[in-house]
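quick one
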Amino acid sequence: MRLEGSCHCGAVRFALDSASPVPYQRCYCSICRKTQGGGGYAINLGGDARTLRVRGRKDVAVYHARIREPGAARAHTSTAERHFCRRCGSALWLYSPEWPELVHPFASAIDTPLPAPPEHTHLMLASKAPWVEVEAKPGDKLFDGYPDESLADWHVRHRLPPG
Ligand SMILES: [Zn+2]
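structure w/ zinc ion:
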């Protein structure tokens, strides 16, 4: 599925091919919540990094989060690149050099109508803010940390997207 996305002010537009376009993954980690998850979580999609095309790249900035693991003495800087528009602040996509073939656009930045998920996966619940209510439906999966199923595997299991 070809996905087209943009920031709010329009300075940045992007497009990519995605075999994992269903917005079923709700990430409650503090980085997603603080940087873009006003409702308490952000939604990541999966895409093919080789197909990513960007217009307005000069307005794309990258944020590397500082992360302190539980029990760790000090924080480290995440290798993950959180790309956002430096003019309006819209979160655009995440890229990790550890998985160079993948890019993870945020569903909030995608303009192409996305398929509605038949069920959700709620992840990083250990980092959830106390005020955030997890709106889990029957069939949803909940994880304190990362889920046991990749974005790609979930789509294969659900035979999505159709066609
Ligand atoms: Zn913008």
